[in-house]
Design goal:
single chain; about 425 residues; alpha/beta; Rossmann fold; 2 domains; eight-stranded mixed β-sheet; 12 strands
Length: about 425
């Protein structure tokens, strides 16, 4: 029996979430690229992972807007919007403070959330994650080849969305079905394109929650990325485990969850403190304004200086550092210009904001009023399913135990065929 699914409306879109277990610590699981709550409970390995996590926590699960059984949307959310979405889920679940477990791509938002909302973050755990969507020379050189190979593989996945490409020319029918059910082809491509532009490295030193990074040694996503992140977060611990599976629920799941359980269970409630990641706006007339995310900050700065004789500076960093740096940018900005730091620009992927080489906001950017939309992104993924696949979704929703039995039977048949 799967837990009851509830929905919280965020920006007018229903976001599906579930609460499992009654442990002493709230644990928010931030999914990676795609997820599907109904299908997950029909998969024996995922169900086993959920039950393990819920054995020591009050586990909060959700599907991001545009994926799974949450509502469809006509844009790819920014990290800022994903943070707001996570806050809405926590509020709806009655959680004042939670440990955050970010899986893979979900780790980027989890880092930014922990740095921006330290009062809501009891602990941070990242599995199989990475700090940015593109390799550059500030990262260890040994990460270049794996990062480029992985980028090529992700391109192939979205080019053949719904076919279940794994790697090395292998395909999985079950994975293909999961892909088609969890996100439309347009949304999958949009999310990958936006992820390539994300970069949370400036937020790493600001994280103060107890932090654990777990990575399997031979994961296709290079473990060096997690090791590097651990070195940037004060007091963080890096645990490298044996294995080559990227999904947490495959391979030796218990070894990974053992690390997470020990970390989350020992983390004390976080004390409130003033050190947090923020975006600061400085204008000659308006003075200093602080925002939890750069998109709102940039739009506000543009509205303040548009058509005026002075410019504005926008900087994302630890709040005190950002305030001083934003003031320097404001002095450098020309009349009516909004000069934006690289740290802020790297967090607005998907917002439709454009900048020149100096970091000056293009006043003709399509995202200055609101995030640009594209109708194809809101296509219902169920439209791409066959009648039998829709029937399988119904089984997963109403009888997940039967779905797990079918999965185990199919696995035995595949094993017998070699």
């Amino acid at each position: 029996m799967r837990p009851r699914t509830r929905h919280v409306r965020h920006d007018g879109v229903p976001v599906a979430y579930q609460v499992v277990g009654d442990g002493p610590v709230d644990l928010l699981l931030v999914p990676g690229f795609i997820s599907h709550l109904d299908l997950s409970w029909a998969m024996p390995s995922v169900t086993a992972m959920y039950r393990r996590l819920a054995s020591f926590s009050r586990l909060i699960l959700y599907d991001k807007a545009g994926t799974g059984i949450s509502g469809q949307i006509a844009h790819v959310p920014t990290l800022e919007q994903r943070m707001d979405e996570a806050l809405a889920v926590l509020d709806a679940a009655g959680s004042e403070q939670a440990a955050i477990l970010g899986l893979s791509e979900g780790g980027l938002m989890s880092v930014l959330f922990a740095a921006t909302h330290p009062d809501r973050t009891r602990a941070l755990a990242l599995y199989g994650s990475f700090p940015c969507g593109r390799y550059d020379d500030s990262l260890p050189p040994e990460l270049r080849a794996p990062a480029e190979r992985l980028s090529g593989e992700m391109a192939r996945v979205v080019d053949h969305w719904g076919e279940g490409w794994i790697s090395e020319g292998k395909r999985s029918w079950n994975l293909g079905f999961f892909e088609r059910a969890a996100a439309s082809a347009a949304m999958a491509r949009g999310m990958v394109d936006v992820a390539r532009g994300l970069d949370v490295r400036p937020a790493l030193p600001v994280v103060r929650a107890p932090t654990l990074l777990v990575h399997r040694a031979d994961d296709p996503f290079p473990s060096g990325g997690s090791r590097w992140m651990a070195a940037q977060i004060p007091g963080a611990r890096f645990a490298e485990l044996a294995g080559d599976m990227h999904p947490l629920w495959r391979g030796d799941m218990d070894a990974v969850v053992d690390e997470i359980e020990a970390h989350v269970s020992s983390a004390p409630a976080s004390a409130a403190h003033g050190r947090r990641f923020a975006t600061l706006v400085r204008t000659a007339e308006g003075g200093r304004e602080e925002f939890s995310g750069p998109v709102r900050a940039i739009r506000r700065a543009h509205a303040e200086v548009r058509g005026g004789d002075a410019g504005a500076g926008v900087w994302s960093d630890e709040r005190d550092t950002a305030a001083e740096a934003a003031a320097r940018l404001q002095r450098e900005a020309g009349a009516g210009e909004v000069l934006v730091s690289e740290s802020a620009r790297n967090l607005v992927a998907g917002a439709g904001l454009e900048f020149d080489e100096r970091g000056v906001l293009d006043p003709a950017s399509p995202g200055l009023e609101r995030t640009p939309t594209a109708p194809e992104l809101a296509e219902d993924p169920r439209d791409a399913l066959t009648a039998s696949e829709r029937a399988r979704l119904l089984v997963a929703r109403h009888a997940p135990g039967a779905g797990r039995a079918l999965s185990r039977t199919a696995a035995r048949i595949r094993a017998a065929r070699g």
